[in-house]
Amino acid sequence: MADETFLIELGGRRWELRRLPFGVLRKVQPALLRQAREITNGDAASAVYRLNEAALAKQAEAVALALRTVDPEMTSAVLDGMHFTPADLAIAVLQVLRACGISTQGAAGDRWRLPGG
After folding, report:
1. DSSP per position, 22-82
2. By the number of CB atoms within 10 A of the CB, which of 21, 24, 76, 106 ranks highest?
3. pLDDT tens digits, residue range 13-37?
């Protein structure tokens, strides 16, 4: 389990995350789970259509923070300059949640269960 990696692909770039350090996890996980509960009701497939600008920004921030563990130059501003879709970002968010130790079922777009939800 410790050797497990989580692939994130955005804007033609690829990163392999390992389990996130606790300092990153404690910032990323609660914010993403709170947001996910608000917009998904457990249905990740339709959630991407309910994302507003603030929600997309929070997701990008969380992904950038996670990516900084393997790419120290990564920031939200760097992500802002990359070309990818909200659906691509949603897939990256699922991978970040997996790197936090949250089990998601199947690929992005499948139903997934949130703890406490």
Report:
1. HHHHHHHHHHHHHHHHHHHTTBHHHHGGG--HHHHHHHHHHHHHHHTTT-TT--HHHHHTS
2. 24
3. 999 999 999 999 888 888 787 776 6
pTM of the predicted model as reported, rounded to 2 decimal places: 0.78
CB 6 within 8 A of CB 98: yes
- DSSP, res 107: S
Q: Which amino acid is at 70?
A: V
Q: What percent of the chain has pLDDT over 90?
A: 43
CA distance 95 to 74: 16
Angle at which helix 86-99 crosses helix 53-67, to 10 degrees, equals: 50
